[in-house]
Amino acid sequence: MVIRKLNKLPKDFISFIRVSSGIAYRLNMKVYLVGGIVRDLIIGRESFDYDIVVEGDGIEFSMKIARKFNSNFRKHHRFGTATVYYRNYKIDIATCRREYYPHRGALPRVSRASLGEDLLRRDFTINAMALSLNKTDYGRLIDPYGGYIDLKNGIIRIMHDDSFFDDPTRILRAIRFEKRFSFRIEKHTLALLKMAVSKKALSSVDDQRLRDELILILKEPSPLKYIKRIQELTGLSFISKGLRVNKDDYYIFARIEKAIELYKNKFSTYRRIEEWIIYLMALLSKLPRNDVIRFCKSFRLRRGEEKRLVDYFEHRKAARYLNRNNIKISRVYFLLYRLSFETIIFLYASSRNKTARDNILFFLNKLTDVRLSINGHDLARLGFAPKKLYSKVFDGLKMAKLDKGLVTKNDEIAEAKKIFRRLKK
Ligand code: ATP
Fold this sequence. Notes:
Blueprint: H1 11-26, E1 30-34, H2 36-43, E2 50-55, H3 58-69, E3 72-76, E4 81-86, E5 89-95, E6 97-100, E7 109-112, H4 115-120, E8 130-132, E9 141-142, H5 147-153, E10 155-156, H6 163-166, H7 169-181, E11 184-185, H8 187-198, H9 207-219, H10 224-233, H11 247-266, H12 275-284, H13 289-298, H14 303-315, H15 329-336, H16 341-350, H17 354-367, H18 376-381, H19 390-404, H20 409-424
Parallel strand pairs: 2-5, 10-11
Antiparallel strand pairs: 1-2, 1-8, 3-4, 4-5, 6-7, 8-9
């Protein structure tokens, strides 16, 4: 079948593939667009991943392309893959390969293969289609496993019965595609999925691979429905033992969505937030701090990610002061200013107390950027010593600025003197 979908691609990307097609022809190789991009082109969904496979040497092909377009290029010899950066596109180019799993849940060993075999190693039929970019049959859909019909019927179907055991992350991928597209996991596939779960397939997977899938899920719009489905099919123990979500969490997830909207509408100039971290905070919020730290370590979250998560657990008790009506402005400031916006948004969303929410909004509106007119050099010039007291002096100055309304530089200097005297006593 010739699918006239390629012309739905962005114009500059079409020029890229036209040129690539010529290069492949001269190298006597065959090239195809493959995987999620083909699926998305068929259903008319915008896609950001461009995957190309090559029958031939993918790395050689990529090098020629990169040279032709003068693009950045990175190769990964182990898998025979490369990434080419062309304008705003990140294009992953791979040699067609078959995969062999040395043991269940491990990363696969690979060897060169035909396009048909390459498609066979994929997760679901809807992701196992290719579009030819070759001169002789440009735009032809290659669909040996019935992906097109499954896509039209909204069905998630694995490629072979061992699939979930070979790579149990596919269990989470199946749920992700099912919920994202409102599709249905086909009956036999669902039975195999449940069997893999009952044989504890997920526990054979590296935590880091589970982390990647979990993050992808939390990055989907409205991730709660995905989490509920995971709870129903696999349980959430692979995240932390005994973890469950209930009605209270449903409420909080909904409130997080609203809070994120609010932030994006009113405060997005502050900093781009990582929404998935807020949802993860919500998921973990019932666990003791030590379990959260254990999760961060075994899932190897980045240091900044871990910090944002753990900060919540360290500050949530103190944050209760925000419930008070007569709280000083400086107190609001000092409770919140060291926290990430992700943590602040979660505190806002999860607080049922209106005063606390108002205080957090006040912070976001007025207090995120409290600056003093004087700095360390000024203090040194005026002979303030020792220097190790400076940060306390600045904290005190900010407090006074917020509560007493210091306005001029001289106000600040006078206040600094008082604070210094107090500190040295
Ligand atoms: P998304 O729209 O979420 O990016 P995608 O289908 O493009 O989905 P990727 O993770 O970018 O997903 O993978 C690209 C392609 O690689 C998939 O379409 C699928 O063909 C294949 N693939 C990815 N992960 C697996 C896996 N765990 N097992 C088998 N095939 C996979």
